[in-house]
Design a protein that fits this description.
Distance between the termini of chain A: 39 Å
Order of helices and strands of chain B: HHHHHHHHHHEHEEHEEHHEE
Domain Histidine kinase/HSP90-like ATPase (chain B): 281-375
Helix content of chain B: 55-70%
Transmembrane segments (chain B): 16-39, 46-67, 73-91, 123-142, 154-171
Order of helices and strands of chain A: EHEHEEEHEHEHHHHHH
Number of domains of chain A: 2
InterPro entries (chain B): DUF5931, HATPase_C_sf, HATPase_dom, Sensor_HK_TwoCompSys
Structural class of chain B: alpha+beta
CATH topology of the largest domain in chain A: Rossmann fold
Distance between the termini of chain B: 48 Å
Strand content of chain B: 5-15%
Helix content of chain A: 55-70%
Oligomer: heterodimer
Strand order of the largest sheet of chain B: 2-4-5-7-6
Organism (chain B): Prauserella halophila
Largest sheet of chain B: 5 strands, mixed
Radius of gyration of chain A: 17 Å
Domain DUF5931 (chain B): 14-177
CATH architecture of the largest domain in chain A: 3-Layer(aba) Sandwich
Largest sheet of chain A: 5 strands, parallel
CATH class of the largest domain in chain A: Alpha Beta
Chain lengths: 217, 384
């Protein structure tokens, strides 16, 4: 089955280049967008399997678009394709619901592979993202929050994340821990899901505390 | 005298200079009044008028010079004190004994108080006080006596010169601080603007060249590789922390970020990892040493990963490569031969900091450094 893709990036040259690369590899590039509003609007119409999202959309942040898209399209997955220096933004994007992160300097092969895996529902984790997620869990554990207890990693999840952050592939990790490749993916997936869930709960609590839930009606 | 500051084109003490100019003309009017009031009492009225004429000329000269920042010459300020004292010291020749007896004003009258203020504005507290003291001594010499009146005048001259001098120094220092802050702010803003513009243009093109070139292969791939190296270096440059005062702390996360290349990936928490600047430098050097070993021994195609972790009680750094690893006994053999290699250097560096460094390696499994450093106690409980 052909995977449908939408590309959100404010640079025409980059956008068109990626669209062509993906087209040549058999993906159905349904739409492109350059800003948050059109990304949210157009994605609702074309319902792509995967949205490739740049985080730096001129003055706007791709994180806002991710939040809206994930909320309105439960079957669409978002893969962040962004510059490597934007640590905090990438973490926010993942917390908002993106299921993976790839740096723009990645090769076409890596990109194609990442889009396929995203469409299959697998997380796309670079070493860089794993390091950030590890750091975020530790930060949450040390910073007391107003709400319930922060999510925690199991020992196994932590081991897996550390291996990813140190550059080991899922296959290598599976060999080291004597578990299946699938189990490694599941552990990674679970670290993300807990983070996203916690983020949603925190946002909802914030909204209720500040009366934002009523204003939006 | 303290080092005299060269006045710059935006002299912070310009209002003080204007004050001295206004005061000079007001006191000159007073001097005219004094001559008229005591007209019949002078021993040598011509000399009194001549002295007044010189004071008028000198007032014009100094006013013309001091209104402009560039001509507030140190020499003229010194001359101001000298001229004032000289006219004052002519008083015994012009004033009658009667005038001295009733403590009538000297030739310079209160006009003499302006020179110490000018000296204060130009040279600061010490200069102002010195100018005041010189004029005060001249007063005493002119009257050839030392009584309560002379002491009071002297004290006032000394104090006013000093206070104006202190005000001038304070004004200059705050102006310097403000302009420093403004420069830093302007530099930061400019840096952000450049970073945005580089991100929006050059980096996009480099990323594109790198990807497209890699696909084309051959020489294009080589060029693509170079474009990629530049892309990463430029990115690290524009996202790194602007240099500035930081209480002796530095961000280890940002420092390590600069090490990223197409073959070295750096991971860590999204937020800053602040440590004393010396510690950051040492850790950075240790990681660089480990990476240089990768370059030397792990072969052309080897990749390396640097992972920074901030635990509640320690900092953990891992440097891993996927090269062929180091054969067993190789390190021991090198040590026996007296080669204090990179490994020793890294361990020594960490021992110095109070941490540990462990090297794991096996043939075919790459090498992995794990560096542990207990966090400084005073920072352990700080929250972000």
């Amino acid at each position: 089955m052909t995977v449908s893709v939408m590309i959100v990036d404010d640079h025409p040259m980059w956008r068109d280049g990626v669209a062509r690369d993906l087209g040549e590899h058999g993906f159905d590039v349904r739409a492109t967008a350059a800003d948050v509003d059109s990304a949210v609007r157009v994605s609702a119409t074309v319902t792509p399997d995967v949205v490739l999202m740049d985080l730096n959309l001129g003055e706007q942040s791709g994180v806002d678009a991710i939040r809206a898209i994930v909320q309105q399209l439960s079957d669409t997955r978002v893969l962040v394709l962004s510059a490597s220096g934007e640590h905090a933004d990438v973490l926010e994007a993942v917390k908002a619901g993106a299921s993976g992160y790839l740096v723009k300097s990645a090769s076409v092969t890596e990109l194609v592979d990442a889009v396929r895996r995203t469409a299959d529902g697998d997380p796309v984790f670079t070493a860089g993202l794993a390091g950030m997620v590890l750091g975020e869990y530790r930060r949450m554990a040390e910073t007391p929050s107003s709400g319930g207890p922060p999510p925690q990693l199991t020992q196994r999840e932590q081991d897996v994340l550390r291996f990813v952050a140190k550059g080991l592939t899922a296959r290598q990790i599976a060999d080291r821990l004597v578990i299946s490749h699938r189990t490694v993916e599941n552990h990674v997936q679970s670290t993300l899901r807990k983070l996203q869930l916690h983020n949603r709960v925190e946002l909802a609590r914030y909204a209720i505390e500040h009366g934002l839930d009523q204003e939006q009606e | 005298m303290t080092t005299a500051q060269k006045p710059n084109l935006h002299d912070a003490v310009t209002p003080l200079w204007w004050g001295t100019i206004v005061l000079r003309w007001m006191t000159l009017a007073f001097a005219l009044g004094a001559v008229i009031v005591h007209l019949d009492e002078y021993r040598n009225l011509t000399l009194a008028w001549a002295a007044f004429a010189v004071m008028v000329v000198w007032s014009i000269v100094t006013t013309a010079a001091f209104v402009r920042v560039r001509s507030r010459w140190a020499g003229l300020v010194v001359a101001d004190v000298a001229v004032t004292c000289t006219i004052m010291l002519l008083s015994p020749l012009a004033l009658s004994d009667y005038q001295f007896a009733i403590t009538a004003p000297l030739l310079t009258t209160v006009w003499a108080s302006v020179a110490p203020l000018t000296a204060g504005a130009r040279f600061g507290a010490v200069g102002g006080a010195a100018g005041g003291l010189i004029v005060a001594v001249s007063t005493g010499v002119s009257r050839w006596t030392f009584d309560l009146d002379v002491a009071r005048d002297g004290l006032l001259l000394f104090a006013s010169g000093m206070i104006i001098g202190m005000a001038a120094t304070t004004a200059r220092r705050s102006q310097a601080a403000v302009s420093r802050a403004m420069r830093t702010e302007a530099a930061t803003a400019e840096r952000e603007r450049l970073a945005r513009s580089i991100h929006d243009s050059v980096l996009q093109v480099l990323a594109r060249v790198r990807r497209r070139g890699a696909e084309l292969g051959g020489e294009a791939a080589e060029l693509a590789n170079q474009a990629g190296e530049q892309e990463i270096a430029l990115r690290a440059l524009v996202t790194s922390e602007p240099l500035g005062p930081s209480d002796g702390d530095a961000d280890l996360r940002a420092a390590l970020g600069v090490l990223a290349t197409s073959r070295v990936q750096v991971s860590g928490p999204a937020c800053e990892v602040r440590l004393p600047a010396d510690t950051v430098t040492e850790l950075l050097t240790a990681v660089q040493e480990a990476l240089s070993n990768v370059d030397k021994h792990a072969g052309e195609g080897a990749k390396a990963w640097v992972l920074l972790e901030e635990l509640s009680d320690e900092i953990v750094l891992t440097v891993r490569d996927d090269g062929p690893g180091i054969p067993e006994g190789r390190l021991e053999a090198a040590a026996e031969e007296g080669h204090l290699g990179v490994a020793q250097s890294i361990r020594a560096r960490l021992a110095e900091l109070g941490g540990t460094a462990r090297l794991d390696t096996a043939p075919g499994a790459g090498t992995e450094w794990e560096i542990h450093l207990p966090r400084p106690v005073d920072r352990r409980r700080t929250t972000r």
